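ENTRY TYPE: protein
WANTED: fold as tokens:
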Amino acid sequence: MARIWIGLALVLAVLAGGVRADTLPELSATQSRTWVTPEEKALGAAWLRRLRGQVSTVDDPWLTEYLLDLIYRLYPQTGMDDGEISLVVVDSPELNAFAVPGGVVGVNGGLLLHTQREDELAAVLAHELAHLSQRHFARRQDEAGKQTAISLAGLLASVVVAAAAGSDAGFAAMATTQAYTLQSQLAYSRENETEADNVGMSILARSGFSPLAMTDMFQRMIEASRYQGRAPEYLMTHPLSESRLAQAQARARQVSGSFARSSGMAFYLVQARLKVRYAKRPEDALASFEAQLKAPELGSKEAGMQRLAALYGAALAAMTAGQDEKAGERIRMLADELGAEPMVQALQASWLARNGQPDQALHLLRRALELRPGRYALLRIYARIAAEAGELSSAITTLRELARDYPDEPAIWSELADLYGKSGALAQVHMARAEALQLKGDVQGAIRELREARKKAAGDYIAATRIVERLKTFEAWQRNPVF
């Protein structure tokens, strides 16, 4: 689980500035301070385990880091006292986002493909954070007398169906029908949506983003519904009408302040990564980026960043397609113009390692980490390249530190299990596998792994004690599932 530390986040919020507080939309009375109960945390964690067990998720360290940085910027303005948010990215090109009690925020990877600027992405995240801060899901269950676990099961089914529709065109019609059947039970009310719009705009404005970004996204969703023959999956649980759009536009115009509508470089680089991911073939993505690079330059700052992102995308697509010579050419051009950017340094290091220069790759990453110690994505990539270069001890140490700081990231535990296996640490192999399995919803499999770990840990009191404690936890989950 990615942890949002409020102390740092508050500092970032103060630095954002740029807007007069007296012009902001009023927050709901229920938002003064919002606490997440232990029961909600447990329910949200259990829901997330189930989701990971049923859909493919995106393990892209740069995407994770970027989205969390954006949440860091928004979170202090939500009114939520609890500082823990779990982020999950569903591997689907469809436009979708959702929030679950207990601090779970999810997006589809395709969300970034449907946003034109960073503030539009921030608007979707702010809207979901507003649903959490206003406790809309819990309030809706109280008002309707529904059981939360049952409703969360419906939401899980809706997300799974939407992801399936995005990955299989032949399944889309049936999935859409099933999802809309669930909508009547799951959709937020008009009152909930209006409140989330208003509170979300406040979160945006106080974080330095234009509230108009939210109405821009609404307009694009309505146009998609009109011209593509079906609504984006997001609208299944977030009903949107022309009247709601008009209300939001009127509300946004009431907010005065200075808002930059430009995006950061990281937005365009991460977007380029997703364009490569969701292209039918990497060669198609490469051709698209190359065409963009040949187009006349417009001269604006935004256009300049988009060109650099196209250069990055071309390099990544070429590597993905196995065209290493082409990738090397683009990476050298990129390094000349954007060499201090960590994403560029990491891509360059990956190219060096792949082309027989692991020592140079690791040197480049170590220098990058000296300037940015603790950087999540850099550490993930450093561990991978170090392991490939035979530096198992360094790779294991790096992943253990990451597992300590990000204990709810299943990919870290899976990679750690693989490295423990190569080093012959058998008890640790099973312990790490157990953590990866439980995070993906396979609690029974995790219990089996821990029982194997207990056999291998004979004589190691510290490891055996930890194994027994985790076994007790997992067995309790199995006996009394919260979801």
